[in-house]
């Protein structure tokens, strides 16, 4: 049986993952509408991943015989000034999720909940990878600069990073 504090915190995290999925979907749509196909693919995949993160928590709560609440969603931001800002928003979102996962781990430690600590380790690793990937994309965007061909090169670089992420997921 989960401690009520853990049950509440996991439900809050479940809602954060759902919001992240919805935010990424809006980013994907924006990129798609700008014909940034590589960036759109990146965010569609991220949106699917965040939904999977949400579902993992949902199934964990059910497995633990705890309450699992399906969250309501706020309308995500749908307009962005440029592609750099989309990836900045993505990094900020990942950093916020990392903070909340770390707080959850600390709460599970305080409650001596070894099962939840073990469950959360997967998220700790996932957050490290996701922050690293978005940081790499922002570094490439900075290197490419904002010359006339920059959007084309940025999109091609993101497409390469998509291929690398997919290859590493297939290996795992
Ligand atoms: Fe990257 O947010 Fe889920 O865990």
Question: What would you note in describing this structure?
Answer:
This protein has 172 residues and is mainly alpha-helical. The two termini are 31 Å apart. The relative contact order is 0.15. The chain has helices spanning 4-33, 37-63, 83-110, 114-144, 150-171. The protein has a single domain (4-171), classed as Ferritin, CATH 1.20.1260. 80% of the residues lie in helices and 0% in strands. It contains five helices and no strands. Residues 17, 20, 50, 53, 94, 97, 123, 126-127, 130 line the site of hydroxy diiron-OXO moiety.
Fraction of residues in helices? over 70%
Number of helices: 5
Total beta strands: 0
The number of domains: 1
What does the largest sheet look like? none
Average pLDDT, rounded to a whole number, is 96
Distance N terminus to C terminus?
31 Å
Question: Structural class per helix/strand content?
Answer: mainly alpha
CATH architecture: Up-down Bundle
- Which ligands, by name, code or SMILES, are bound? hydroxy diiron-OXO moiety
Radius of gyration: 17 Å
Question: What is the CATH T-level topology?
Answer: Ferritin
β-strand amount: under 5%
Write the element-wise H/E pattern from the N-terminal end onward.
Answer: HHHHH
Instruction: Name the CATH superfamily assignment.
Output: Ferritin, core subunit, four-helix bundle
CATH class categorisation = Mainly Alpha
Which of globular, elongated, flat, extended, rod-shaped describes the shape?
Answer: elongated
- Extract low-pLDDT stretches: none
């Amino acid at each position: 049986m989960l401690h009520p504090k853990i049950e509440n915190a996991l439900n809050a995290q479940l809602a954060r993952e759902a919001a992240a999925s919805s935010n990424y979907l809006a980013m994907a749509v924006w990129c798609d509408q700008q014909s940034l196909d590589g960036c759109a693919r990146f965010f569609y995949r991220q949106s699917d991943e965040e939904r999977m993160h949400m579902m993992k928590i949902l199934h964990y709560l059910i497995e633990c015989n705890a309450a699992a609440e399906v969250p309501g969603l706020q309308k995500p931001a749908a307009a962005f000034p440029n592609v750099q800002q989309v990836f900045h928003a993505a990094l900020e979102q990942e950093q916020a999720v990392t903070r909340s996962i770390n707080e959850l781990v600390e709460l599970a430690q305080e409650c001596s909940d070894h099962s939840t600590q073990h469950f959360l380790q997967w998220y700790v690793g996932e957050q490290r990878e996701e922050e690293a990937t978005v940081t790499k994309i922002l570094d490439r965007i900075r290197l490419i600069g904002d010359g006339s061909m920059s959007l084309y090169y940025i999109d091609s670089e993101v497409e390469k990073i998509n291929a690398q992420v997919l290859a590493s997921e297939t290996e795992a």
